[in-house]
């Protein structure tokens, strides 16, 4: 008899789970037979036709959060619009999922605000829906990011889904774009590349890194899908392989996502490192922190690192209780980083408040956190105190 393999480690991102019912069309199968989907993420920005953009954005967010609240109430078994949402079981006793109702369209050409909407690729009708017409012809809406991704992957392929941490970090960039304007930025564990794409709308150069040709190719296709946002901004986004479990950069010119020597040298200009939802396995987290130390200890200037993290609670047999082991290990690594004395770099760690503006639509649950690490090379501090005789 043929052996049946059960993937007990299949995971599905809430970003894809909590989309409105309806268009669940996949675009194609990827090279390893996984269905590939496309989602659109709308950036809530000031409307060109609005008299009071601030009011309008607030209204959009309020309407959206009302939809979210109704959906959340529905999940808890309370009133769901005008329909009672009891916990429903089908005839076999399986849980029947009630999908969030499609939201009302808000007087803007009938488009929805709730996301993601998964579309069939190359559909003429749907493409027209996303075009903006002006005197010069057709344009993709400048505020819609299109991301190719898969759903419900095994753990080793989690990068092919979009995670809430990517959206939180993207929101952080959008809430203070001036901080990153013209900068050289390195993203670690970039997955589909969504956060790097947002970053490239303000930064000069973004090195968007991850591992695996399949994933990096998907990321590259996502750059192509978002030319309408990236080209006008003028920044450059480069997809490169950077494995936290390797000590060196891959500079083999025969490999597609390898680094040139010039690019490796250019990393010395890095002012920011960003990483979204990258701590979910202790060995990988150790590798990530080793990579951060190695990079920052060699940088000639201060580098600021932003890491988004979702504190996921799990029931473990080991503890016979609910715990968040991956998060606890992350905090342990952060403490070690702050206490580290290697004579080359000093790290200062702080958690940032997560109450900055929301430009993308997702549930900003309280478990979503944003952390900032400031890495100061000691040589830099030394040089500064030598040249500033009165500094304290
Ligand atoms: C949960 S996903 C997050 C992806 C994306 N940042 C997001 O939030 O949507 C974790 C990412 O870490 C990447 N990763 C895992 N092991 C890695 C390694 N050894 N080196 C570099 N990246 C790795 C995965 O490929 C994946 O893209």
Tags for this entry?
12 helices, Rossmann fold, 2 domains, 17 strands, alpha/beta, binds S-adenosylmethionine
Would you write up a description of this structure?
The chain is of the alpha/beta class. The chain folds into two domains: 14-145, no CATH class; 158-387, Rossmann fold (3-Layer(aba) Sandwich). Helices cover 32% and strands 23% of the residues. The protein contains twelve helices and 17 strands. The protein has helices at residues 14-17, 53-75, 124-130, 164-175, 177-180, 194-200, 213-225, 227-233, 261-266, 282-298, 325-339, 378-387, and strands at residues 26-29, 35-42, 79-80, 83-84, 117-118, 131-134, 137-140, 144-150, 184-188, 205-210, 236-241, 270-276, 303-310, 314-316, 321-323, 345-352, 368-377. A hairpin with a 2-residue loop joins strand 6 and strand 7. The longest helix has 23 residues, at 53-75. The radius of gyration is 22 Å and the shape is globular. The N and C termini lie far apart (76 Å). Mean pLDDT is 79; it is low at 47-55, 61-88 and 101-129. The structure holds S-adenosylmethionine. Residues 158-159, 162-163, 165-166, 189-191, 210-211, 215, 243-245, 276-278, 280, 284, 287 line the site of S-adenosylmethionine.
């Amino acid at each position: 008899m043929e052996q049946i393999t059960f993937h007990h480690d299949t995971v599905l991102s809430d970003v894809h789970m909590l989309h409105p019912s309806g268009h669940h069309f996949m675009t194609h199968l990827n090279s390893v037979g996984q269905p590939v989907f496309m989602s659109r993420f709308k950036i809530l920005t000031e409307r060109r036709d609005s008299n009071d953009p601030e009011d309008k954005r607030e209204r959009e967010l309020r309407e959206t959060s009302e939809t979210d609240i109704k959906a959340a109430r529905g999940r808890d078994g309370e009133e769901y619009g005008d329909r009672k949402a009891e916990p429903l079981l089908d005839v076999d006793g399986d849980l029947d999922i009630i999908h969030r109702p499609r939201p009302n369209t808000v007087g803007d050409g009938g488009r929805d605000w709730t996301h993601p909407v998964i579309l069939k690729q190359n559909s003429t009708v749907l493409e027209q829906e996303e075009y903006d017409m002006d005197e010069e012809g057709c344009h993709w809406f400048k505020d819609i990011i299109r991301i190719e991704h898969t759903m419900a992957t095994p753990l080793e392929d989690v990068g092919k889904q979009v995670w809430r941490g990517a959206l939180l970090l993207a929101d952080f960039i959008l809430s203070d774009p001036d901080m990153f304007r013209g900068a050289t930025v390195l993203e670690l564990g970039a997955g589909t590349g969504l956060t790097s794409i947002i970053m490239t709308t303000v930064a000069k150069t973004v090195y968007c890194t991850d591992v695996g040709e399949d994933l990096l190719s998907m990321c590259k296709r996502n750059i192509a899908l978002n030319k309408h946002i990236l080209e006008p901004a003028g920044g450059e986004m480069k997809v490169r392989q950077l494995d936290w479990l390797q000590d060196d950069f891959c500079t083999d010119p025969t490999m597609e996502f390898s680094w040139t020597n010039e690019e490796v040298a250019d990393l010395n200009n890095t002012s920011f490192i960003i990483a979204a939802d990258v701590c979910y396995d202790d060995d990988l987290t150790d590798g990530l922190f080793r990579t951060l130390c190695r990079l920052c200890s060699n940088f000639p200037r201060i580098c600021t690192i932003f890491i988004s993290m979702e504190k996921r609670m799990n029931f473990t047999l080991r503890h016979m209780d609910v715990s968040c082991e991956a998060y606890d290990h992350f905090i342990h690594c952060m403490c070690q980083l702050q206490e580290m004395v290697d004579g080359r770099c000093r790290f200062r760690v702080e958690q940032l408040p997560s109450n900055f503006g929301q430009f993308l639509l997702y549930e900003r649950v309280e478990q979503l956190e944003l952390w900032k690490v400031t890495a100061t090379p000691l040589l830099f501090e030394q040089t500064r105190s030598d040249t500033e005789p009165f500094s304290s």
